[in-house]
């Protein structure tokens, strides 16, 4: 009987090596794609937190400038308010918050008259994760 030559035994091993290399490359590319997807989702969450923080800070700054009408900037509106422009600014602010944040957005602004504490709560649902996020800012608005 004739023994197979060395050349015929090694035939096809290069193709097998190439297939293994392609499989490793495919898993690596899949991992990179998954990592990039997570990175984009986290970036979106950070942008939402930043927008909520800026908008809540804007309302607090408005109240600090107009301390005499601080009760007019509450949401939902509590008590009587004689300043129509303050009520309009507050409702416009709430509309901008709802437009800037993803998901279900709720805004609440309360004034504790005894302590002069003004609190802004903004709650929204995350775009990618579906988690509920809450931002709570408080300031002192005593004249």
Features:
143 residues; alpha+beta; three-stranded antiparallel sheet; 3 helices; 52% helix; rod-shaped
Sequence-ordered SSE layout with sheet pairings:
Elements: H1 6-10, H2 13-65, H3 84-100, E1 106-112, E2 117-125, E3 132-140
Antiparallel strand pairs: 1-2, 2-3
Give a structural overview.
- The protein has one domain (6-140).
- The longest helix is centred in the first third of the chain and has 53 residues, at 13-65.
- It has a 3-stranded antiparallel sheet with strand order 1-2-3, with helices on one face.
- The protein is an alpha+beta fold and 143 residues long.
- Helix 2 runs antiparallel to helix 3.
- The mean pLDDT is 87.
- It has 3 helices and 3 strands; from the N terminus they run αααβββ.
Provide a brief overview of the structure.
The chain is of the alpha+beta class.
Span between N and C termini?
108 Å
What's the overall average pLDDT, rounded?
87
Distinct helical segment count:
3
The portion of residues assigned to helices is 40-55%
Task: Using the CA coordinates, give the radius of gyration.
Answer: 30 Å
Strands in their spatial order, largest beta sheet: 1-2-3
Uncertain regions: pLDDT < 50 for 5+ in a row?
Answer: none
Sketch the topology as an H/E string, one letter per element. Answer: HHHEEE
Whole-number count of domains: 1
